[in-house]
Amino acid sequence: MKTIHNLGFPRIGAARELKRAQESYWAGKTGLDDLLATGRDLRARHWNIQARAGAQWVPVGDFAWYDHILEWTTLLGAVPARFGQADDAPVGLDTLFRMARGRAPSGTPAAACEMTKWFDTNYHYIVPELHPGQTYRIARESLFEQVAEAQALGHRARPVVPGPLTWLWLGKGDAYTAGAGDTAKLDLLPGLLDVYEQVLRRLASQGVDWVQIDEPILVLDLPQAWREALAGVYGRLASQGPNVLLATYFGGVGHNLDVVGALPVQGLHVDLVRAPDQLASVLATLRDGQALSLGVIDGRNVWRADLDRIHEQVREAAARLGDRLWLAPSCSLLHVPIDLGLESGLDNELRSWLSFAVQKLDELRLLRVLVDGEADGADLQALAAARRAVLDRAASSRIHRRDVAERLAASVSVRRDRAPFAQRIADQQARLGLPRYPTTTIGSFPQTPEIRALRRDWRAGALGDAAYEKAIREEIERVVRFQEEIGLDVLVHGEPERNDMVEYFGELLAGFAFTAYGWVQSYGSRCVKPPLIYGDVARLAPMTVGWSAYAQSLTDKPVKGMLTGPVTILQWSFVRDDQPREQTCRQIALALRDEVQDLEQAGVTVIQIDEPAFREGLPLRRGDWAAYLDWAVDCFRLTTSGVRDDTQIHTHMCYSEFNDIIESIAAMDADVITIETSRSNMDLLGAFEAFAYPNDIGPGVYDIHSPNVPREEWMVDLVRHAARRLPAERLWVNPDCGLKTRGWPETRAALQAMVQAARMLREAA
Question: Is 18 annotated as a binding residue?
Answer without folding.
Answer: yes
